[in-house]
Amino acid sequence: MNTPHLAELVIADAPERWEALGFAVAGDAAQIGSVRVVFDPDAGSGIARWAIRGLEQAELDGLPTVIANGSDPVPAPGRHPNGALSIDHVVAMTPDLDRTFAALERAGLDLRRVREATAPGGQPIGQGFYRLGEALLEVVGPDGRDADHPASFWGLTVTVEDLDRCRRSLGELLGEPHDAVQPGRRIASVRRAAGLATALAFMSPPS
Questions:
Q1: What is the pLDDT of residues 119-154, one digit of tens each?
Q2: Of 125, 192, 203, nearest to 166 (Cα)?
Q3: In 10 A of CB 65, how many CB atoms?
Q4: Residue of 98, 81, 83, 206 lying closest to 151 (CA atoms)
């Protein structure tokens, strides 16, 4: 069985919004590590869909998914003014963790770890983690919606060479860095003033 790898993300944003955040965009796309990120303001909302190599099926509990051609070569990583190295993880929300976990398992994804946490409002939540090649998928739930709703994309985090340098270059578009859940790493969220269609954060590399 092929190991699933994230190949592409399609985000419903104009390319210029991501160029303003220091990404090197060619036409309508940026190569961030092994993942091609396509910008299409007419694609819908947020992360509109993704493409994954090595899936057994494309039904992922409502996450819009395309099975990528496993024989296509992986493009060389882009060089970005903000120091972006790779997609660290993509976050999906679900009202029913067990249902979403089961769908991901049927598609050939391997649940690596489950973590219990507390939402800002005090609600207990679970987090499940899946390896998709260079990137992780983080599934978070329950998200407070009716359980009949499907899972949905929430946002993504990009690893950068130097988080403090990235913060200085982006100024008020990026919040203050703080300690991440991952030991020894720090994270900073892009502010709403950037006008993005999806949540985005930058993270320091693993130590």
A1: 777 888 999 999 999 999 999 999 888 889 999 999
A2: 203
A3: 17
A4: 98
**Cα 98 from chain centroid (whole Å):** 21
d(CA 189, CA 63): 23
Q: What is the distance between the alpha carbons of residues 84 and 205, in angstroms, rounded to a whole number?
A: 10
Q: Tens digits of per-residue pLDDT, 34-71?
A: 999 999 999 999 999 999 999 999 999 999 999 998 87
CA torsion, points 10, 29, 199, 98, in degrees to nearest 10?
Answer: 30
Torsion of CA 144, 180, 111, 46, to 10 degrees: 50
CA distances to 180, 186, 199 from 165, rounded to whole Å, are 17, 13, 21
Is the Cβ–Cβ distance between 139 and 60 less than 8 Å? no
| Distance set, CA 140 to CA 43, 54, 121 (Å) | 24, 23, 15
Asked whether the whole model's pTM tops 0.85, one would answer yes
Q: Which helix (H) or strand (E) holds 128?
A: strand 124-132
DSSP 34: T
